[in-house]
Automatic annotation (TrEMBL):
Bias (Low complexity) ranges: 36-76
Tree of life domain: Bacteria
One Pfam family recorded for the sequence: DUF4430
UniProt source species: Congzhengia minquanensis
UniProt-listed InterPro entries: Transcobalamin-like_C
Start and end residues of each stretch annotated as Disordered: 35-99, 137-157
Biased composition (Basic and acidic residues): 138-149
Protein name: DUF4430 domain-containing protein
UniProt domain Transcobalamin-like C-terminal: residue ranges: 211-288
Segment forming the signal sequence: none
Length: 304
């Protein structure tokens, strides 16, 4: 018993020494960041912040914008012959579609009004005497040409022409002064091409050869004067069709615009490849904005 008592006393003494050293060394609670009087801070496990669910905004029902006004199907009002050209009265098709041949003729008649330019009525009897093969049913020849007026030359088919080396003289000119009165209709990119006086080639006396046509003359003189020319062959009319001169083309100044020719004051009712030149002829190429009404080349009707 005495043996165990000594061991117990020795163990108690060791514990007392260790406790004293612990307190003396500063490891007691409160001396290294912990205050025994303060309540322990209980750290709760990290809880992710509750997401606040934002209710979706009510779906916006977009109101349809006002429907665009339907394009008017009415034909444009025709410009009177003495009325200035404006964008509003520029000839155009329905709903921006090109005018048909019939619509162009109807519009030209409206532009001409009650007093169209004087025209020479064709004569079947005279035309047949001049060699035109007029179909009694259609009133036209095989190339859709109506009878020529009395005193005017009948067409000569290019394949029948015989060109010789016999030289003659005639006069030729090219002008587009009608555009100056209709600048509001002109393609803006073509404005600089229009001469101030509208004259592209002034009246010029030139040489031609017997058997040549107005077309032969035009091709040679445009090349000689370095003036642009573009044309296509139109078999249905057995003639060349002039699309553009001096880079001014058909439709550049409205849907009724394009090139026409007249000889000695008369606008032939057939293509320039079929008009055989005669000594002293005065050939004029003119640009029209109103299917001939503005240059005196509109024909309201044919003859007998």
């Amino acid at each position: 018993m005495r043996k165990y008592r000594n061991k117990i006393i020795l163990g108690a003494a060791v514990l007392a020494v260790l406790a004293f050293v612990f307190w003396w060394g500063g490891n007691a609670p409160g001396l290294r960041g912990w205050n025994p009087q303060s309540e322990p801070v209980v750290t709760s496990p990290s809880v992710p912040p509750q997401e606040t669910e934002i209710p979706p905004e009510p779906e916006q029902t977009s109101l349809p914008s006002e429907a665009p006004a339907e394009a008017s199907s009415a034909a444009p009002e025709a410009k009177k012959s003495n009325e200035p050209a404006t964008v509003e009265n520029k000839p155009g098709g329905k709903a921006n579609k090109p005018l048909t041949a019939e619509e162009k003729i109807d519009l030209a008649e409206k532009i001409a009004g009650e007093n169209p330019p004087a025209n020479e009525a064709g004569s079947k009897q005279y035309a047949k005497l001049q060699g035109m093969d007029i179909n009694d049913a259609t009133g036209k020849d095989q190339y859709r040409t109506e009878p020529v007026p009395e005193g005017r030359p009948a067409p000569l088919e290019p394949q029948d022409a015989v060109i010789t080396d016999t030289a003659h003289t005639c006069t030729i000119s090219v002008r587009c002064d009608s555009i100056l009165k209709n600048m509001a209709w002109l393609d803006p990119e073509k404005t600089e091409l229009v001469p101030e006086d509208g004259v592209i080639l002034p009246p010029t006396e030139v040489t031609f050869y017997e058997g040549e046509s107005v077309f032969n003359l035009l091709v040679r003189e445009m090349k000689k004067n370095k003036i642009h020319l573009e044309f296509v062959n139109a078999p249905i009319y057995n003639s060349a069709y002039i699309e553009g001169i001096h880079n001014l083309y058909e439709l550049d100044c409205g849907e009724l615009s394009g090139w026409m020719y007249q000889v000695n004051g008369w606008f032939p009712n057939y293509g320039c490849s079929r008009y055989a030149l005669q000594p002293g002829d005065n050939v004029e190429w003119v640009y029209t904005c109103d299917l001939g009404v503005d240059v005196g080349g509109y024909y309201a009707s044919a003859g007998d």
